[in-house]
């Protein structure tokens, strides 16, 4: 395993005086090259704050951050935009619609970071934009559309296209499918998995949806009140959680009925439900 | 179990929206379903399927661009579509009540929560303002608000999302309705909060002999919490069955596809599949008879021209509307 990203002792507080609270309170994270890591937790657990800090879009108070062996936590998030490693760490947000400039076409939006960070111009730029949109599975006739002319699923694909256009080595995704219907979500999950494999990109999925994390990730970190309370392979943590909070989280998930033993079962209709 | 006369009966309900640019969108198409007293029924569908419009139609809370073009709705035998506005005001709260997805925007932001519950009680026959206030505190305690006497003086912004939804439930239950409609009532809440809110709805339904209609996009939640599930696609009811049966022996191709797209404890990425295409534009002039037609892998020409009949299993519990069911 080659370590791509490492953070140690991360802390971040919000608020002033007596209202000061640590949203992230001493967190260590290691991400291996090409790995799919899940960051699970409920609202207010600090998982999105960690995502923003990892993407260097938000300043942390304490701790060190290493990317590819290089310290990247010293410069401010503001100056991070000018750093050579900026292109290599990208982020995808939940609200893809809100993350696009409503005045620009989708392809112009995807071109912006390419122009700024990889300095491509002309045909090379057009090619890179179209390649990213293609890879994200967006149909060609949608490239010139404005964000409001796309559906939720199409916007999610456009958001992913913009993030992968720079060929990042680490992609942070904050609830990338939370606003989508399951019929659309399934396609986005497949897309992300293919992109991770084809581009050898590490991905950190920040989500409250344990069932989505389960199918997408190999390792999971569970957060509560700014702390990582449990960490391990997804299969093991979900099958036999060790921390009471993880147990509670899993117990709260709606149960999916097992197909065995139900009357009048039609042959061939239930095999789609259970994988084993 | 004794066979009870249905509490709610909906027959061939069709509803259209007049569009600002002209033309009409057929939002509900011939929808029929029953809810028995004390039954928990889930209406499951994706965004735009018409499930929330259906809930609003039951309460006659639709805006003026919506027109019910056919069908009937009866609750306890009473014809809702021909009830006077005055009568509807009585029925809302007392017979049917609803909780919405976003409690923050359903509560009055500048009125203390105890007062809001007292308002409902006063609207439904309570005469004494003092008694209404005392009962409001009891209602808050009943839905699990700690220190209810003090919390009754809180404004909505002082409460967490889960607590606000508890207040909404207290409001909905204030006049002891026979049917509680929960429209995506736990969407956006954390799973642990969702479980608590759903437990509360279940407890209250049982304690008050109340039926529930859970409107949701979440099949797993529907299966865990309801006796029966009805699936809606583009305004058409495609299948309904006892909950566990629907999940394990779905007969409509859309239900099956929805199940295959839903991640759950037994899922792997390999067996998770998106549904190709999208629901048709219900304003289109040439809508196929079965609106799943364009997305369906079992379609024939018949599906385009002839609306599928609802066929029931021998005991009548499993109903499917498809020419080529699984």
UniProtKB/TrEMBL annotation, chain A:
Residues 5-250 form the ABC transporter domain. GO terms for biological process: transmembrane transport. This is ATP-binding cassette domain-containing protein. The keyword Zinc does not apply. Keywords: ATP-binding, Nucleotide-binding, Transport. GO terms for molecular function: ATP binding; ATP hydrolysis activity. The keyword Transport applies.
TrEMBL record, chain B:
Keywords: ATP-binding, Cell membrane, Membrane, Nucleotide-binding, Transport. It is found in: Cell inner membrane. GO terms for biological process: peptide transport; transmembrane transport. Residues 10-259 form the ABC transporter domain. It is a peripheral membrane protein. InterPro entries: AAA+_ATPase (IPR003593), ABC_Ni/Peptide_Import (IPR050388), ABC_transporter-like_ATP-bd (IPR003439), ABC_transporter-like_CS (IPR017871), Oligopep_ABC_C (IPR013563), P-loop_NTPase (IPR027417). Its main location: membrane. GO terms for cellular component: plasma membrane. It holds the Pfam family oligo_HPY. It comes from the Bacteria. GO terms for molecular function: ATP binding; ATP hydrolysis activity. Belongs to the ABC transporter superfamily. This is ABC transporter ATP-binding protein. It comes from Acidisoma silvae.
């Amino acid at each position: 395993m080659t370590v791509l990203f490492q953070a140690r002792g991360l802390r971040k507080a919000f608020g002033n005086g007596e209202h000061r609270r640590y949203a992230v309170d001493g967190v260590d994270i290691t991400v291996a090259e090409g790995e799919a890591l899940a960051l699970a937790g409920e609202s207010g657990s600090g998982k999105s704050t960690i995502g923003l800090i990892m993407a260097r879009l938000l300043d942390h108070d304490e701790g060190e951050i290493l990317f590819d062996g290089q310290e990247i936590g010293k410069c401010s998030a503001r100056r991070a935009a000018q750093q050579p490693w900026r292109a290599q760490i990208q982020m995808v947000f939940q609200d893809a619609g809100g993350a696009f400039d409503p005045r620009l076409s989708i392809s112009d939006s995807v071109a912006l970071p390419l122009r700024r960070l990889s300095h491509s111009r002309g045909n090379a730029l057009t090619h890179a934009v179209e390649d990213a949109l293609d890879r994200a599975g967006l149909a060609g006739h949608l490239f010139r559309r404005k964000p409001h002319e796309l559906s939720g699923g199409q916007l999610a694909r456009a958001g992913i296209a913009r993030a992968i256009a720079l060929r990042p080595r680490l992609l942070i995704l904050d609830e990338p499918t939370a606003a989508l219907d399951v019929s659309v979500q399934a396609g986005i999950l497949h897309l992300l998995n293919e992109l991770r494999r084809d581009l050898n990109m590490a991905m950190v999925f920040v989500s409250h949806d344990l069932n989505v994390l389960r199918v997408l990730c190999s390792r999971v970190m569970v957060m509560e009140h700014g702390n990582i309370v449990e960490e391990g392979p997804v299969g093991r943590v979900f099958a036999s959680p060790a921390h009471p909070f993880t147990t509670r989280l899993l117990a709260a998930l709606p149960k999916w009925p097992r197909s065995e033993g139900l009357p009048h079962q039609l042959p061939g209709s239930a095999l789609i439900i259970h994988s084993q | 179990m004794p066979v009870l006369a249905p509490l709610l009966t909906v027959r061939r309900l069709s509803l259209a929206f007049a569009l600002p640019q002209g033309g009409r969108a057929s939002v509900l198409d011939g929808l029929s379903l029953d809810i028995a007293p004390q039954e928990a029924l889930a209406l499951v569908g994706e965004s735009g399927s018409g499930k929330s419009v259906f809930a609003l139609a039951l309460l006659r809370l639709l805006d003026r661009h919506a027109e019910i073009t056919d069908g009937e709705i009866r609750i306890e035998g009473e014809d809702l579509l021909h009830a006077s506005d005055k009568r509807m005001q009585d029925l809302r709260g007392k017979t049917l009540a609803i909780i919405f997805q976003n409690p923050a925007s359903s509560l009055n932001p500048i009125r203390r929560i105890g007062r809001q519950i007292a308002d409902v009680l006063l609207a439904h026959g309570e005469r004494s303002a003092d008694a209404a206030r005392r009962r409001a505190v009891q209602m808050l305690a009943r839905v699990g608000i700690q220190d209810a006497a003090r919390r009754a003086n809180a404004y909505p912004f002082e409460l967490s999302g889960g607590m606000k939804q508890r207040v909404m439930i207290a409001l909905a239950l204030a006049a002891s309705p026979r049917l509680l409609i929960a429209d995506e009532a736990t969407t956006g809440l954390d799973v642990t909060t969702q479980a608590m809110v759903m437990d509360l709805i279940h407890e209250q339904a049982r304690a008050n002999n109340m039926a529930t209609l859970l409107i949701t996009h979440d099949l797993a939640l529907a299966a865990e919490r309801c006796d029966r599930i009805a699936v809606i696609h583009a305004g058409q009811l495609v299948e309904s069955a006892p909950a566990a049966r629907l999940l394990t022996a779905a007969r409509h191709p859309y239900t099956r596809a929805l199940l295959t797209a839903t991640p759950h404890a037994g899922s792997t990425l390999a067996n998770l599949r998106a549904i190709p295409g999208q629901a048709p534009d219900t304003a289109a002039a040439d809508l196929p008879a079965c609106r799943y037609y364009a997305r369906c892998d079992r379609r024939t020409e018949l599906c385009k021209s002839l609306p599928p009949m609802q066929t029931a299993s021998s005991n009548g519990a499993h109903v499917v509307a498809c020419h080529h069911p699984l």
